[in-house]
Design brief:
There is one protein chain. By secondary structure, the chain is mainly alpha-helical. Helices cover 73% and strands 0% of the residues. It is built from 9 helices and no strands. It has helices at residues 2-17, 24-31, 35-41, 45-70, 76-93, 96-109, 113-133, 143-161, 180-194. α1 packs across α6, α5 (76-93) packs parallel to α8 (143-161) and α7 crosses α8 (143-161). The longest helix is centred in the N-terminal third of the chain and has 26 residues, at 45-70. The protein is elongated and about 60 Å long. The relative contact order is 0.11.
Length: 196
Amino acid sequence: DTMEALLRATAHILEKDGYDRLTTNRVAEKAGVSIGSLYQYFPNKDALVLAVGERHFDEMRALLYERLGRTVVPAGLAGTVGDVIAMLVATHTKNPRLHAALSERVLRTGILKRRAAHLQEDIYRPLLAYVAAHPEEISVDDPEMAVFVLTHAVEAIRFGLAMGHSGYHVFVLGDAGSGKHATTFRLLRDRAASEP
């Protein structure tokens, strides 16, 4: 239907060319509809981006819940953290270029900020609950801060890898055995697999 064609066209242009090159005329042309038809559904390009972003975050949330439902915690904190990292990587490797374009819009304009915050909470709460229930496995003074750092570190690495500028490097610093290299390599491998 027309709405679906417009959303697919918007996502395609965002992935390929980014927000700055997205126009309602390009979306209408790519979707095979008139500009008048586009405006019956969306008043401007930000409304298109918002709709695509909400759909993308809903897909990420569904993937997250599906992964959480399969996560088994008897492996202890290290295994659970590994599962959470794998889950974060999986959500970020679903349409990574689209995710990067949408993340950039969240940072620049605040569009989708509420949806991104809800998704972050969906990741944060279960891990915090696990850490709080197993204090013998992790000795930190502030479990909330530890979980915050873990989830944001993965997002920061993913964002850094998506920069796509020549000469740009990702520098990862942390304690030995913290999983920083394994996480970074996993993100790099998944990113490379998604590239043409």
